Amino acid sequence: MNQTINNQCYYTAGLFTLSLRLVIGWTYFSAFWRRLVLENKLIPDEAGYIGEKFNHFLPNALGIKPVIEYLVTHPDTLQHSMIAFTIIEAIVGLFIMLGLFTRLMSIGVFSLALGILLGSGWIGTTCLDEWQIGILGIAGGFTLFLTGSSYSFDEYFLKNNFSFTHKKWFQWCNSGVLPFSNLKPVVLIGSMVIFGLTLFTNQYFHGGVWGTLHNKSVKPKLEITNVLLQNSDLHFTIHCTEGVDVYGSFLIGMYILDENGNILKALNHTELSHFRKESISNHYVSKVKPGKHSLIIPLGSKADLVINIGDIPDPKKRIHTLKLVDISGIEWTARLNSFNH
Questions:
Q1: Please, what sign has the CA dihedral across residues 281, 283, 285, 286?
Q2: Which of 206, 230, 265 represents a domain boundary (last residue)?
Q3: Helix locations, the chain, DSSP H
Q4: Do 119 and 154 fall into the same domain?
Q5: Across all residues in the chain, what is the average pLDDT?
């Protein structure tokens, strides 16, 4: 009698989460659909390559930054990882929609969502987009693990009483009654942990719990480091650490100044649009490069640049500051031999 009631409760719970299962499933399967069916976004050096988007996560990722940095500095490994990641998303999404190995796939949903949250939870120009996707995916994955699925392959196996549905692994990996004598502590503890993660990441990425709200995706920020003279060249490193992931920075001005702020050398937007590629040494897959009207610095990109200063008399005594100007009017400065920016 109790077993029948339990079965009915789990069937009802799986029925109530049907829309959640289908939407979450499509969310992950559609990543595969977009990248390989509608377009091929897994080819390096082509527009829309998913590895570049992954590079956008790097500057402010939480906990997994070393992993991301390793991948974006090893392009072959990155491409293989993106292919594997896309295949996993396709399997998880499809199986969740079909209700096949629902609980096992819900762990996949939870894990993928956690990766999105930690990697890109700071990105989102209007509604904290990536943070919301990540944290809701975690909560959804946990919920689907608890409920299992109805209108699914799992339910078909159970109703037809296949022999393997009586195995313990089926309860843990598919659907049906979970082998807990009391689910309340499991639900309460799991929910509190997820809620705690929600508050922590909301505060860490956006200041959304207390203090001042901040959004690192609204406007570009460049870090200028290692500014030094070598013979007749000025060397420096730029790193785009904030900004819109589809924007980055468009540099229209580069100025070398003396101690009084007088311009010793200036490169305007036309000159920057023809900046020598040989004078740019990129660190990651997202590349600093000359564009049609400016020098393009994508979000997450990092590069060493060289400017010839042979036309500046006595540069060691005169050069004091490097100034960069974005098309939006934002300016960044760094002193010679200084790490301040």
A1: negative
A2: 206
A3: 2-16, 18-32, 50-56, 65-72, 75-98, 102-120, 129-147, 153-159, 168-173, 184-206, 269-273, 315-318
A4: yes
A5: 93
